[in-house]
Each structure stands twice: as C-alpha cells, then as structure tokens.
Design goal:
Distance between the termini: 21 Å
Radius of gyration: 20 Å
Mean pLDDT: 97
Largest sheet: 10 strands, mixed
Helix content: 25-40%
Length: 417
C-alpha cells in the first residue's frame, strides 16, 4: 500500500523556560537556563535542592479550580500544551472528523505527586485505607490523553506510551505510523511529566543520577562538559498536532514540516547505563534513516538526548560519529536539556518542537554551560556551544533514550510540496 505523508500543523509547549511556543523559543535561542532552587517543598535534607520547575503556571486559565483538583499536575500540563497546539493548528468542530482524530501521549511516570500525597496521608492514619476517590484516576499514566480526548471530543485512538525518557518520542512515532497507514487523519501527540516531588528527586538522587551542583543551579545542566555530574530534573509538556498531508492541505492548515521517519531500538545492556559504544543508539539512528529513505549526508542537525551524564553524553556522540562518519563534523549538534533540564517522559516532545522551530527559523539553539573540554569527546564535532548558530536546516533528527535501554529517534524535514 502507498504510505501517506504526515506533517506537523500545530505546536504547544509548557516548559521551565517558557509557558508557550513563543516564550519557549525565545528562551532557547537566548540560552536561558530553567534551573533554580526548588519551591515546591523544603529541600533542607535533600542532596539536590534545585530543578527546572515550570514557573507562573495558572491552571485556572484553562479550567475552573474544582475541575483542576481532579487532575494531577502532569495532566494539567498536558491540557495546557495540547490546548495551545490545537488552537495553533486551527482545528475546529467543523473542519475535522472527530472519529478520525486521536490522542497518543507519552509519560514516563504519570501522577507521582498524587501517589506521594495519598500514600503519605495513609501513613499518617490508623491503618484504615482512606483514599481520595480521584486517587487512581489522577495517578494513572493513561489519564492525560483521556482528558485531552474528553475535552475536545476526539474519538480516535487514545492511549499513553511508557518507555521512561523515550515515552513521548515513542508516542510521536506511533502517531506517525497510525496516520501514514491511513487509520487516522489527525493525532494530538506529545508528552507531559511532573516529577519534581520529594519522591521523584529523592529516588533519582538515590541512583546518583542527578547533579548536586547546589551552589550554581543555573549552570548545573552542562552536556558534553568534562565537569558534568548528572542531569537536572525538569517538568512540563509538549504537544504536536500530526496530520495527513492531503487532509491538512484540504482544510488550508499551516504546515511546519513533514515527518520523514522514526526509529526504535533497545540497548539490551543495562538497567540504567547506556552501552559504552552506543550500540543501541547507532541502531536507532540507522533505523530512522532507513525508514525515511535518507542517507546520513542528508542530515543537517541533531538535537541529542544529551542529558549531561558522564556516560550518556560520550556514548551518544560516539554513536553519531559511527553513523555519520566524516559528515558528523558538518552537523550542528546540540542538547537543549542544558536549558530545560530533563523532562523525562516529556523530553522527546519538547525537543522535537525545538528541532522544528530551529528548522523554521534557521537557528540552532545552543548547548549552554560548556566550560571545560572533555578529552573523551571528539573536538571536531560542532556541539553548538554556548551561543545559537544560524544554519539552514532541511533535515533534522531528535534523539531520546530511556532507562532500560529504550531508544527512539524522529526525523523531520522541510515540507516538499
């Protein structure tokens, strides 16, 4: 069968450096750090006392307070980002068939804050199992796309992908495949996460995964720098409207770009550590290029997973050199996690948006906070250090990897009518 073309017609973002697409992009090109001391709880006894929180978010801009109490923060974030993306795409009750509009969302953890609160409240009691009736519906990871669907009356496929930090990239690839196979006209896809909690921070600290640079939070996320000491936890959401090309043209939609392909792989190596030679990462990028019918030399830009971990950054860059050969030296490579922190299940979505905006504006956002050269990293690679760079981008890739060895990659290309 002839596969259909899939384009992006709407974007929405709620991030630690901006609460809209416009603000997010402004933060990216200006190298803004979203890291700051945590405001949600007392961090006195915590190893890491900072994170990339969403700032000045008011859920009452989207729903009344009574309704909002039935949603965990990760679902609230999903509503905010998807509302912006749907409006941006110009989707109305009359220009789509809602039976052919789906929602495929990503979340690595889901309602962690809700789970934490309910268990702590139970522990304070006498052993009687008293729980909020909304405990389970607020916590479960699938509930964010359910709310987006119910809010808009979308009756197509509706589910959540869970693959740790690769979750929303997996969601985008699933959405891409549903549309190109002709099963849907439009899918709202992306991801959300809200794990800046006592349990979230404490859990990642116990794994020695987080930076502990408490004296300088804003410079703690430093991908590719020799002094990096772990990732900075972030929160927020990113939403993309994926649409069948002819359907988008027929309704006169604005088109950002085309999705050329997507790839998946597994490291099959370790619970949390990447394969040191990037074997799974090599496979996922090769799979993506093969799916898109492209050669390595076609690619201009890669937004890396680049979490600012000692092992992960080196393995990924080794993999890029292995896949792209001499062409790797001509790529603009960056890590926007240097600014947003690591949004876990939402990372793939907001980084895909960063790639699309870079393509649209002809500017590659910087990898900030780089100070000390890592001798384990090839110095000939252009890591877009500390300052945005102008670059015409026709083809770009976004890498996202998760604990457990889950690898996902999405390729975007300028629309070719």
């Amino acid at each position: 069968m002839q596969l259909k073309r899939v384009v992006v017609t709407g974007l929405g973002a709620l991030t630690p450096i901006g609460n809209s697409i416009e603000a997010y992009w402004e933060g990216l090109v200006n190298g803004k750090s979203g890291a700051a001391p945590i405001t949600y709880y007392d961090t006195e006894k915590h190893k890491t006392k900072f994170a990339c929180e969403v700032k000045n978010f008011d859920i009452e801009q989207f729903m009344d307070r009574k309704e909002s109490r039935r949603l965990d923060k990760f679902s609230q974030y999903a509503i905010a980002a998807s509302d912006e993306a749907i409006k941006d795409a110009g989707i109305t009750d009359t220009n789509v068939n809602k039976a052919r509009v789906g929602v495929i969302w990503g979340a690595g953890i889901g309602g962690l804050e809700t789970f934490q609160e309910e268990v702590l409240n139970y522990a304070k009691g006498d052993g009687t199992p008293k729980f909020n009736p909304f405990f389970i519906p607020k916590m479960i990871a699938d509930i964010a796309p359910a709310h987006i669907s119910m809010r808009n009356g979308f009756m197509g496929p509706n589910y959540t992908t869970v693959s740790a930090c690769a979750s929303s990239a997996n969601a985008l690839i699933d959405a891409f495949n549903y549309i190109r196979l002709g099963m849907c006209d439009v899918i709202i896809s992306g991801g959300s996460e809200a794990a800046v909690t006592i349990a979230g921070m404490g859990g990642f600290n116990s794994m020695h995964a987080l930076s502990t640079r408490n004296d300088s939070p804003e410079t703690a996320s430093r991908p590719f720098d020799a002094t990096r000491d772990g990732f900075v936890l972030g929160e927020g959401a990113g939403a993309l409207v994926l649409e069948e090309y002819e359907h988008a043209k027929a309704r006169g939609a604005k088109i950002y770009c085309e999705i050329g392909g997507g790839g998946l792989s597994s490291d099959a190596y370790h619970l949390t550590a990447p394969h040191p030679e990037g074997v799974g990462v090599i496979a996922v990028m090769q799979n993506t290029l093969r799916d898109a019918g492209m050669q390595p030399t076609d690619v201009d830009h890669i937004n890396t997973h680049g979490p600012s971990t000692p092992l992960g950054d080196v393995a990924e860059l080794k993999a890029i050199s292995a896949v792209f050969g001499d062409h790797a030296k001509t790529l603009n490579i960056n890590s926007t996690k240097s600014m947003t922190g690591h949004l876990l299940g939402a990372a793939g979505a907001i980084e895909a948006i960063a790639v699309i905006l870079a393509m649209q504006h002809g500017i590659v956002p910087p990898t900030i906070n780089h100070e000390v050269v890592d001798e384990n990293i090839d110095p000939s690679l252009n890591l877009t250090l500390n300052k945005a760079q102008k670059r015409e981008i026709k083809v770009a890739m976004s890498n996202t990897f998760g604990f457990g060895g889950h690898n996902a990659c999405v390729l975007f290309k300028k629309i070719d009518a």
